Amino acid sequence: VEREAPLNDTVNTDLLLVGAGPTGLFGAYYAGFRGLRTAILDALPQPGGQITAMYPEKFIHDVAGFPAIRGRDLVDALTTQAGRFSPDYLLGVNASELHYDGELPVVRVSDGRVVRAKAIVVTSGVGKFTPRPLPVGQEFLGRGLEYFVPRPAEHTGRDVMIVGGGDSALDWAQTLRPVARSVTLVHRREQFRAHAGTVADIRDSAVRMLTSSEVVGLHGNGRVQAADVVHRPTGATERIAVDAVIAALGFLADLGPLASWGLEIQARRIAVSTTMRTNLPRVYAAGDIVAYPGKVRLIAVGFGEVATAVNNAAVEMDPAQDLFPGHSTDAT
Ligand SMILES: Cc1cc2nc3c(=O)[nH]c(=O)nc-3n(C[C@H](O)[C@H](O)[C@H](O)COP(=O)(O)OP(=O)(O)OC[C@H]3O[C@@H](n4cnc5c(N)ncnc54)[C@H](O)[C@@H]3O)c2cc1C
User: Fold this and answer.
1) Inter-axis angle of helices 299-317 and 22-33, to 10 degrees?
2) 52 CB less than 6 Å from ligand 1?
3) Residues 252-272: pLDDT tens digits?
């Protein structure tokens, strides 16, 4: 469904979406439905934003029309829906600088490419988020040390260690328990910050829980083979054989390069009007990144906002256009 934008210097498009979370993906469908050429870029290597990064296996219950839909299935459906109009994906890259060529916005991308668009919708969620790093063993990143679990089946038959005490750590423990050979959960405190029911479920399971404990070293020959875990109250250290260490220590989110674009920022969010327009010409924003009185940060809300943003951007690009796009039921 996806196609990578050609790696030449300039990508010319009508609408650029900055962020391929659920809001950006639905925006790509919507722009296509309005007949606009669309490019969509994301710092992460896969589309889906927070859903893909943090809860692809969880069921979401508050997306209109779906009593329950697994995170990854919602992302797949959104990319299929947008794919009908073949947006250009630029993945694993940051939107760095914004400048204008006359009236038209031009965005420089971290890999050196330039995107020339007639309008931009910033759908960058909580911003550029990077996993909080495990303080040790960075040399094993991608070779046993992971920050995401995009494909749980890859851990089939493995001895897995999960580090962290929040919802993600406990969710991964629950997800991997049936597929991994063993799961060890290491948390530096006694108390967990996760949903109480999930914690109770894990406590009653075969997952080995090491609390008040920290990973102080990783070992292996090429790939991770063992982790040293110290129990802080006693100082006792244990070397545990593992095939994978999943660090779920949370994410560091920041606006990243968008902070220098000249956007009006309120409490690390982008201020928008009721048309989802920012203070900058031809730049709109939608989804978790926006701030206005009464804003609620939910997938369903981002879907509505991005439809508003795209329709208003379409009119700003071409004032002869109607704001109302017509009904999709009338399209072939
Ligand atoms: C554990 C958890 C459970 C949740 N459960 C629910 C739920 O049940 N129902 C619900 O409605 N919501 C839920 N949410 C919230 C929901 O995930 C968010 O509201 C939603 O993801 C927002 O979508 P978005 O597209 O606006 O932003 P995001 O999903 O944050 O996507 C933004 C994307 O923009 C990219 N980006 C940012 N800055 C740049 C840049 N400069 N260059 C390139 N890329 C950039 C990021 O990498 C990211 O992929 C949950 C969130 C979490 C963490």
Assistant:
1) 40
2) no
3) 777 888 989 999 999 889 999
* pTM of the predicted model as reported, rounded to 2 decimal places: 0.82
Q: Decide: 71 in ligand 1 pocket, CB within 6 A.
A: no
Amino acid in position 323: L
DSSP E strands, 62-191: 69-70, 88-91, 95-101, 104-109, 114-116, 119-122, 128-131, 145-146, 159-163, 182-186
251 lines ligand 1 (CB under 6 A): no
Q: Which range is least confidently modeled, 64-68, 193-197, 300-304, 308-312?
A: 193-197
Residue whose CA lies nearest to ligand 1 atom number 27 = 125
Backbone angles phi, psi at 172, to 5 degrees: -65, -40
* Ligand 1 midpoint to CA 51 (Å): 6
Alpha-carbon gap, residue 64 to 43, rounded angstroms: 28
